[in-house]
Amino acid sequence: MLEDLTPAADQAQTCKAVQRVREHPDTTERDVELIVEYMNNPAWGHYQLSYALRKKGIDVHKDSIIRHRQGRCPC
Ligand SMILES: [Zn+2]
Q: What is the spatial distance between Cα 16 and Cα 32, in angstroms, rounded to a whole number?
């Protein structure tokens, strides 16, 4: 009965974290590189990184960082 079940495609079209950084008016290409670098750096906790970004005026939810770290984005 359950043979045809397949996991829903969970691949987001965009990386929400990178998208949020891009939305900031002062963002440079270097910032986009840096956010990916920080997310790929295990020294950054997802909550800690989300908080640090919020202080810079970029609202990246920690779940977006977790999604990126789980490879559930196009990065
Ligand atoms: Zn990503």
A: 12
Amino acid code (one letter) for 36: V
- Cα of 50 vs centre of ligand 1, distance in Å, is 14
Model-level pTM? 0.81
Q: How many CB atoms lie within 10 A of CB 37?
A: 11
> What local confidence, expressed as pLDDT, does residue 27 receive?
95
CA of residue 67 to ligand 1 center, whole Å: 7
Distance CA 51, CA 44 (A): 11
State in Å: Cα 74 to ligand 1 middle: 6
Q: What is the mean pLDDT of the segment spanning 35-61?
A: 97
Looking at residue 24, the DSSP 8-state letter turns out to be: S
Rounded Cα distance between 12 and 34, Å, is 21
